[in-house]
Specification:
With 443 residues, the chain is of the alpha/beta class. The protein folds into two domains: 20-51 and 328-441, Aspartate Aminotransferase, domain 1 (Alpha-Beta Complex), CATH 3.90.1150; 55-326, Aspartate Aminotransferase, domain 2. The chain has 13 helices and 15 strands. It has helices at 41-44, 53-63, 77-87, 103-120, 141-146, 150-153, 186-198, 225-235, 288-298, 311-326, 329-348, 384-394, 423-441, and strands spanning 20-24, 27-30, 35-38, 94-100, 128-132, 164-166, 203-209, 239-243, 267-270, 282-287, 354-360, 363-368, 397-398, 400-406, 409-415. The strands form three sheets. It has a seven-stranded mixed β-sheet, sandwiched between helices. The chain has a four-stranded mixed β-sheet with strand order 1-2-3-13. The chain has a four-stranded antiparallel β-sheet with strand order 11-12-15-14. α3 (77-87) runs parallel beside α10 (311-326). The longest helix is centred in the C-terminal third of the chain and has 20 residues, at 329-348. The chain binds pyridoxal-5'-phosphate (PLP). The site of pyridoxal-5'-phosphate has 15 residues, from α4.
């Protein structure tokens, strides 16, 4: 336990953290001998499983061969091979990759690249970004401006160059009071209206998580949403950025969530599972013609970073992508993820405080409500999610918290384990969830 001891400025300041010392498969062990079933892969990060020797070996080999070279001075074999291999999986046309370290940085990179593509085309007025509420794109200032997560934004409002936020395609609590499909996707049509109101020539890009994640307890959009958004963006010359930092790299049972919706963005943002959740690695994937336009006019993309296009991170990423391929882990995420979703629904959907269970592949969210009929949320002050999460954690099951989806109120938990989880381990997660509901809510 480390509260008030040691020199680390921890992420949480209200409780001591157990010290993790080892991890393997879906299990994390602590110094005091406890074992935790990591049913969320941390923050929906670990996809290929903990403790993969193949990644360790690739990184060790790389560290002994070539460590650091500056990205403006050299390229390297793992960097070239990672980009080549990724291009065999990304949606058609997205075949050039710019690597960074965190998801937030990759989002910043995407926003800046979109702007520079417009500049390259002589469209110099295009600078505005449209995004959605109940979204998450990271916490650096540009990514935070895009994100629709109020508690993180409030302290920094005066400092943000804010995006224009629209409602998410959140059918359970439709902002327009409509129902799918008779709504005719009002939430997507609002994007067109907003582009026109802002001035079509002033909008640079629309950004959204292909499948909503941390700020909405997982949200696959209704059918037709992304194709309609794509159509609207095309009509007004607005670039479409799909943030797949959480839902990419096999998480939804396809290599990239955009495949579920037959939609190809202009810029795809990746992170988290890109390195299997080992070394910090993120990327944007862009179209050749956009890169070429920037090269032709500006000479280069005005961006960079000491650890961009990093050799060691690339080696980790390459090993992770090879594991996904060799062990057919994306197919496994689809098959076993379907089972996970079915079992969650079988065992929990009748619970009086479970309002919705949604997801796809190995990415599921449970939204809790005070009243199932009215969908009234618990007041945030009751901290239901935190209490459920803590009970689960104390009993050795790790989930990921998601709160505030109901206009600031609202509680949810995300279940998104490494793809190597077994059916037996899935049952342990379900038992843990049922026990937590029983203990915290008494039913
Ligand atoms: C969709 C999405 N985008 C961006 C980010 C930011 O990534 P990072 O925390 O690596 O900066 C996250 C992190 O959870 C995310 O879920």
């Amino acid at each position: 336990m480390t509260l008030d001891t040691g020199n680390v400025f921890h992420r949480v300041l209200d409780r001591p953290l157990p010290q993790a010392v080892r991890s393997q498969g879906v299990w994390i062990e602590t110094a005091d001998g406890r074992r935790f079933l990591d049913a969320s892969g941390g923050a929906v990060v670990v996809n290929v499983g903990h403790g993969r020797k193949e990644i360790a070996a690739a990184v060790a080999e790389q560290l002994g061969t070539l460590t650091y070279v500056h990205p403006t001075m050299f390229t390297s074999p793992p960097l070239e091979e990672l980009a080549r291999l990724l291009s065999t999986h990304t949606p058609r046309g997205l075949n050039r990759f710019y690597f960074m370290s965190s998801g937030s940085e990759a989002v910043e990179t995407a926003i800046k690249f979109a702007r520079q593509v417009h500049l390259a085309r002589g469209d110099t007025d295009r600078h505005l970004l449209i995004s959605r509420w109940n979204s998450y794109h990271g916490l650096t200032m540009g990514a935070l401006a895009a994100a629709g997560r109020t508690p993180f934004r409030l302290p920094f409002y005066p400092m943000l160059r804010d995006a224009v936020h629209l409602p998410a395609p959140y059918c359970l609590r439709c902002s327009y009071g409509l129902a799918f499909p008779s709504c005719r996707l009002r939430c997507a049509l609002a994007i067109e209206e907003t582009i026109r109101c802002l001035g079509a020539g002033a909008v640079s890009a629309f950004i959204g998580e292909t499948v909503g994640g941390a700020s909405i307890a997982v949200l696959p959009p209704p059918p037709g949403y992304w194709p309609l958004v794509r159509e609207i963006c095309d009509r007004y010359g607005v670039l479409l950025i799909l943030d797949e930092v959480m839902c990419g790299m096999g998480r939804t049972g396809k290599w990239f969530a955009a495949e579920h919706y037959g939609t190809t963005p202009d810029i795809l943002v990746l992170g988290k599972g890109l390195s299997g959740g080992t070394v910090a690695l993120s990327a944007i994937a862009v179209r050749e013609e956009h890169l070429e336009a920037v090269r032709r006019t500006a000479g280069n993309f005005a961006h960079g970073g000491t650890f961009s296009h990093n050799v060691i991170a690339s080696a980790a990423g390459l090993a992770a992508v090879r594991l996904l391929e060799r062990e057919r882990l994306v197919e496994r995420a689809s098959a076993l993820g379907t089972r996970l979703g079915a079992r969650l629904k079988e065992e929990l959907s009748e619970h009086p405080q479970v309002g919705d269970i949604r997801g796809l592949g190995m990415m599921w969210g449970i939204e809790f409500v005070k009243d199932r009929q009215t969908l009234t949320p618990f007041p945030r002050s009751e901290k239901l999610t935190e209490r459920l999460w803590q009970h689960l954690f104390d009993h050795g099951v790790i989930t990921y918290k998601s709160v505030g989806m109901a206009a600031g109120e609202g509680d949810g938990l995300i279940v998104a384990p490494p793809f190597v989880i077994t059916e037996e381990e899935i049952e342990q997660v379900i038992s843990g969830l049922k026990a937590a509901l029983e203990a915290v809510l008494g039913s």
